[in-house]
Design a protein that fits this description.
This protein has three helices and no strands. By secondary structure, the protein is mainly alpha-helical.
């Protein structure tokens, strides 16, 4: 968000790209949430997020140890 505000304050924002991308992102997020909530049970969604967060945490730990 701060990056966007920084570029917007400098007048370097491509509104022709940003506005349609924002609309499509909003609509896609809503559609995805509705599809996922109707097809998956909340338990499976929680487990999926847990696995994703575990791998992301492991990657961050590995990068901090390896110096990458």
């Amino acid at each position: 968000m701060t990056g966007f505000l920084g570029y917007a304050s400098m007048g370097q924002t491509d509104w022709g790209f940003v506005l349609p991308a924002a609309v499509v992102s909003l609509l896609g997020g809503q559609a995805g949430a509705r599809i996922m909530s109707s097809r998956l049970k909340s338990r499976y969604i929680s487990q999926l997020f847990s696995v994703i967060l575990f791998f992301l945490a492991a990657r961050i730990i590995y990068q901090s140890i390896a110096g990458g």
